[in-house]
Amino acid sequence: MLQHFTKPYIGRFAPSPTGDLHIGSLLAALASFLDAKKAAGLWLLRVEDLDPPREVAGSAASIIHDLGCWGMRPDGEVLYQNQRAAAYQSACQQLIEKDLAYWCGCSRSELPDSGIYPGTCSTGLPAGKRPRALRLRTQDRVVEFEDGIQGKVRNDLNSQSGDFVIRRADGLFAYQLAVVVDDAFQQVTDIIRGADLLDSTPRQIWLQQCLSLPTPHYAHIPLVTQSDGHKLSKRLQSDPLRNHDPLPSLRLALKFLGHEPPLLDWQDTWDWAVAHWSLHKIPRLTAQSLATLD
Which secondary structure element, helix H or strand E, spans residue 66, and what is its range? Predict the structure, then answer.
């Protein structure tokens, strides 16, 4: 049985500073913000700057600015993952000592096309291989949880991902590990994010169990797609939610999330959104096109 955090409610938004905030992330921020405010809880901001080669200079500041322009400001200091290496290393050491993690010597070219790790190094490094990445044992674990939007999710980790990396061959800590450690550190109780991360959630729940950490409540909003069904990856400069008047953009974002605000001014629309917010109104879809809202 999952051991969840108890109230008070603490939500969070955790963007990666790889460019301007894109539309999907903006919608996830809005959903998480409204859910926190409806519960009279806290909304935290964490910058997931784990991967320096992918970061764009000034991106973190730009994201924080854009969120502020939309009226979304965090309750407390922004947490930066590049300052959390000691905590991630401590978690890795715990897992190694419990024999829940092991060093893998396989290169990416040696992995099967399926991407599911076959356990080559799970009983020890084969002759001629050196330690590269640190992997978490999945131990035939089946993870089930109730998503606040998508419903019941069941994942057989061994057959759907295999033992997965928690520290990469380049020495950087993997997203799956860092997000679990930091959600616990910030005492996050509820996570609202995009459905592109739905498959990651069972791995994160297993990591929480391995580290004896509580599990937040999860809810995954639909991904934004183009009219042809492909994922919308445009940045805000060309997105339909970016213009000089933010009110129409806010109304469109709320409509995408299943809420139909009346014609009100900016502040009254925000007040209406908080008062009428409900996860149950969000379409139970993993993807949705903005074009369907016209």
Answer: helix 59-69
